[in-house]
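Anyone able to model this chain together with zinc ion?
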Amino acid sequence: MTLDSMFDAGSPKAETALTIRRPDDWHVHLRDGAMLKAVLPFTARQFARGIIMPNLVPPVVSVADAASYRQRILEARGADSDFQPLMTCYLTDHTSPNEIERGFAEKVWVAAKLYPAGATTNAHFGVTDIPALAPVLARMEKIGMPVLIHGEATDPAIDIFDREAAFMEAELIPLLKRHEGLKVVVEHATTAETLDIVREHRRHCAATITPHHLIINRTSIFQGGLRPHLYCLPVAKRERHRLALRKAVTSGDSCFFIGTDTAPHVRGKKEAECCSAGVFGGATALQTYIEVFDEAGALDRFEAFASENGARFYGLPLNSGTLTLHKRPDRVAVSVPVEDEEVVIFRGNEPLAWSLGEIRR
Ligand code: NCD
Ligand code: ZN
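re: yes, here you go
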């Protein structure tokens, strides 16, 4: 990693540039069809690899599904892009340990996603009884394949702001005890208590943290009125949790890494009687993360969070090329067109302090 401060001739203003090993996004919803083509360039511009979420309709449950979805992503990728999709399998009550192992051995998928049934967008085929998944998880433990968990309780009687905490106590901690050698990624952690649980089990547990949960708290969703484009799951929590997340990522702790959870939905699905959950953070992700590190005076820790911790946890090689970011004001579009609709970009048309620079392969 190199940090350069340069003085432009004739300008007293220093410009900072940070060159890091190319980063990865360990949690991406790319969707399919026209949406895939519209959103993929934003992820591919920033990240060398992405863990592709399997919650399509219908979900990616078989080796054949994942192989063909990967092929569609490679076809949608521009000719000049080297973006590598890392595929995942969607766990259901009927997943077989043998199919899981086959996809992993054939290098079709690198991990499996556990959605508690009904927890979020397209999670209705998810797992209804997590302890009953033990044979699948035991096989994953044996072959070194990580499980990626959407950690929210699904009982509608539980307050939505408490669902992550409820899940961690009732399901995650017992699961970590049952499978002491299983690699577990707690996806999109949103509470201070979840971060503590992850730290405590760091020998085999890690967490992704999204850009939007570093910027918004639950009050932001109601700022001046109801803001559907800030609604996602897990829903943003109180300010103390946002501050704990910012501290965790900038701490240099190796159990935390990027996972944008970029989750595009067209405007009509967001500005609706019943708004779909998901923030499209993919177009401004790296710029948001680096701003957080800069504000914390922790730019020297950015590369580990962006480009090293995730690959090490998954047991994958680090990327070899570099990406440069410049501390230079930028602004991205307010939305991206998808056929005759559009997806609103998180922090679109807002001043950003950093710009994306050159990629070296
Ligand atoms: C995601 C989506 O839209 O697919 N939505 C979200 O709010 N994050 C699903 C998910 O990751 O929960
Ligand atoms: Zn997600």
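The chain has a mean pLDDT of 96.
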